[in-house]
Design a protein that fits this description.
The chain is an alpha/beta fold and about 140 residues long. The protein has a single domain, classed as Aldolase class I (TIM Barrel), CATH 3.20.20. It contains 6 helices and 6 strands. It has a 6-stranded parallel β-sheet.
Amino acid sequence: MDRIAIRIYGLDDALEAAEAAADLGCPLALISAPGAGYWAGPLWFAALIDEVRSRHPNVPLSATLDCGAYAGAVLASIRAGVPRILFAGDAATAERLADMARAGGLTLLTQPPRVADPRNSFNKATFWRSTLLDQ
């Protein structure tokens, strides 16, 4: 079973989740806010993930950029080398984009992973730990 991906809305969320993962000694799966590949862009996401990795180099980390149904955002993410990209568009477009992603050694997902969203919690500190421990 795949890890639950923690939804992040910015660097603070990502760093708090990584801190909790470091404290617990467990791997971390992150996923951007819905459509962030379109409205924030792949370079923002790559810089955010690089910052998390630089501050928490011992935390095994996977990160997925959610591009919604925006094929152009997926293309930009492929050009930027984002390793895991989520696309919610039509199947024919997804197939062509997946071929391009694979050619670059990247992964295109067409189904979202299981996601835990900190915005559904009253206490983020408890949320990070409980989500990571429940896996």
